[in-house]
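Action item from last week, closing it out:
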Amino acid sequence: MEARVYGYVRVSTKEQNTDRQYEALRKYGVPEDNILTDKCSGKDTEREAYKALRNVILRRGDTLVVKEIDRLSRSKADIRNELEYFREKGIRVKILDIPTTLTDFPDDQMWVLDMVNNILIEVLGSIAEAERLKIRQRQREGIEAAHRKNVRFGRPRAEKPECWDKVMSRLASGELRTVDAIKELGIKRGTYYTLIKRESEGSQ
């Protein structure tokens, strides 16, 4: 069975651009149809496209190409485990930013390649993990600073329209139906019921 080459691209958010990684993989020779992408965090390996590649698509003799080692994961332990998994399954991993990976060495010198790769992978894995921890620290510091400034996160709290009391009085008297009251208030149905619930809880 002919060996195949697949590429994997990962960015942390949907807003980030994948062009740089795609270009590197295509330049290396990975068919565009064989490039799978995830747009989510690299904190672990629970990613849809990656799991499809790892557990379903790739088979012995195939090659997986990524631009950087932290595309696999930002956890050093995960990186080490994944590379070991691929080694055991006979799947070759090419990391474009580690030029020695998959270099053809004579059989009696393969230990040299393995040693160099292991050192590079250990160093780069440590850098990737440190970067993830740094990002988390910055996020924590940002949230703490925002809290000190009384910045609220999530959806803004729904506020009553100025005409709320007047419209609710007409609703209570039977002059308006609920659907008409919502229209006069100029709010969405969900917002209306949120305000009703809040008012009810406040009166208890």
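Closing note: The first strand starts at residue 5 and ends at 11.
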